[in-house]
Specification:
With 472 residues, the protein is of the alpha+beta class. The chain contains 15 helices and 11 strands. It has helices at residues 37-42, 51-58, 126-141, 180-188, 192-206, 213-233, 284-299, 306-318, 320-335, 345-358, 363-371, 383-396, 402-409, 417-428, 433-442; strands at residues 19-21, 31-35, 70-78, 81-87, 91-99, 102-109, 124-125, 148-160, 164-174, 236-237, 259-260. The longest helix has 21 residues, at 213-233. The protein is globular. The two termini are 36 Å apart. It binds adenosine monophosphate and magnesium ion.
């Protein structure tokens, strides 16, 4: 029996200026690196047993039954600069499926050029494919809203970046691929028909209770405030929070030059293209507010009374920093075993983060050591830390079961950048075992285990990854 994916293809019913229908470009000699059977089952995919068929389909060599492949149009502010036209330059959505948890897009990434490719080749090399597979699945296991990984393929072809590299195709699953930039492209063109249709589609799909554009905006703001606070709580740096990499669903999307921090520093940057630190760890809450202001601007034309809606939308955006702060407090107090936070706890959190900065402490290991109630090797037993410990101990006396809470909020392992880079290097050399091992271990990030222990080690000086590069 052949593979069955219950496609519904609702995006294809939107006005045609929003996308270009086309087929993926075949590759020479594909092979299957990984297929996420658990996720496939959640999506209602059946008969996913024939690896040769899975390979053909997720390499883009065969269009599965019922699919309606299309490349989506969008625009973006990239590093604050307006770019009026982008779009899926190396991706094609096969279609969307309806599940009990809502609708999900299935998208091939690296499947050949599209009308939106500009000067790009429409391809991806293996590095970004494996990086996105591991990190997006790790984020999911950490309980952070994210796009998922369905498949990874090696194409048997080379792609040319600075050197020749092995090519890959990644299959991404997302609650939708509607970005702030999707609204922006239509608003900038004053395409009211498209804007209205996209708005109605996005409401129906993500926030059916939202009665108007203001409520929709407020829902997106809430979802993004929760998301960014969760990123902060695991030391995650997205790296390229351009408005095309910012969903209205509130899922993390586009794992290009992202990274989890080892040594804590509030202004840590990893992306080699982020020269001015716009997307540094500590700037993420400000940037998401900026992105929401761009979304607000796009939604104003949908309202009958412009003056009033500008007022209302401005107020909605101005409410976001407080929301972010409350989510941040909730996430960080939970990391300290505090289940009912108060404003006074902010100082406790901030003081710890300051000590961690001064002592260059490992973010993940510090919180985990506190959770396991062990002497705290990531931090020097300095006076500053000792007096902080005392205050914290006094504070958690009021809590019922702080350590149990902490062991569900402070992961034992995270995908560390140097391990990702080593895994990619092995894969390029033909060994995919480290890729599979990372996936297995990261699927249970809160569990202490002997197998995971080597993955808890921060990089040695010669293993440090100073910069990660754009997903191209
Ligand atoms: P990203 O940095 O992955 O968010 O990509 C930014 C834009 O560049 C998107 O519109 C991509 O589709 C496009 N792009 C990135 N890499 C390529 C490539 N190799 N070929 C064509 N378009 C690309
Ligand atoms: Mg992108």
């Amino acid at each position: 029996m052949s593979l069955s994916i219950p496609f519904a293809n609702t995006y294809g019913t939107l006005p045609p200026q929003l996308f270009t229908r086309m087929k993926p470009t075949s590759v020479a000699n594909p092979s299957l690196i990984a297929f996420n059977h658990d996720l496939a089952t959640e999506l209602g995919i059946e008969n996913a047993e024939d690896n040769a068929e899975l390979t053909r389909i997720f390499a883009g060599n065969e269009v599965p039954h019922g699919a309606d492949p299309l490349a989506q149009l969008y625009a973006a502010h990239q590093f604050g600069q307006w770019n009026p036209q982008l779009g899926d330059g190396r991706a094609l959505m096969l279609g969307d499926v309806k599940t009990t948890k809502g609708r999900f897009d299935i998208q091939l990434k690296g499947s050949g050029p599209t009308p939106y490719s500009r000067n790009g080749d429409g391809r991806s090399w293996l590095g970004p494919v494996l990086r996105e597979y591991v990190i997006s699945e790790a984020m999911h296991a950490l309980g952070i809203p994210t796009t998922r990984a369905l498949a990874a393929i090696s194409t048997g072809e080379q792609v040319f970046r600075e050197t020749a590299l092995p090519g890959g195709v990644f299959t991404r699953v997302a609650a939708s691929h509607i970005r702030v930039g999707t609204f922006q492209v239509l608003a900038a063109r004053r395409d009211m028909e498209g804007l209205k249709a996209l708005f109605e589609h996005a409401v129906e799909r993500h926030y059916p209770e939202a009665k108007d554009p203001l409520e929709f905006l407020q829902s997106v703001i809430q979802a993004q405030a929760k998301l960014v606070a969760k990123w902060m709580s695991v030391g995650f740096i997205h790296g390229v929070m351009n408005t095309d990499n910012c969903t209205v669903s509130g899922e993390t999307i586009d794992y290009g030059p992202c990274a989890f921090m080892d040594e804590f520093h509030p202004m840590q940057v990893f992306s080699s293209i982020d020269r001015h630190g716009r997307y540094a760890y500590g700037n993420q809450p400000d940037i998401i507010v900026w992105n929401m202001a761009q979304l607000a601007t796009c939604l104003v034309p949908l309202m009958p009374d412009t003056d009033q809606s500008v007022k209302d939308f401005t107020e909605a955006v101005h409410a976001m920093p407080k929301m972010l702060h409350l989510n941040w407090r909730k996430a960080f107090t939970a990391k300290l075993g505090i289940s009912s936070p108060t404003a006074e706890d902010d100082v406790l959190i901030q003081d710890l983060l300051r000590i961690m900065t001064d002592e260059k402490a490992d973010f993940t290991n510090t919180f985990r050591a506190l959770s396991d109630n062990i002497a705290n090797p990531p931090l020097d037993q300095s006076d500053a830390f000792a007096s902080w410990m005392q205050r914290w101990q006094t504070r958690i006396e009021r809590e019922d079961n702080p350590y149990a809470l902490m062991r569900t909020t402070n992961p034992y392992i995270i995908p560390r950048n140097h391990q990702i880079e080593a895994m990619i290097q092995s894969a390029v050399d033909g060994d995919f075992a480290p890729f599979h091992r990372l996936n297995t271990l990261l699927s249970k990030p809160f569990e202490t285990s002997a197998e995971a222990l080597p993955y808890t080690h921060p990089p040695m000086d010669d293993e440090r990854v100073e910069a990660t590069f754009c997903g191209t």
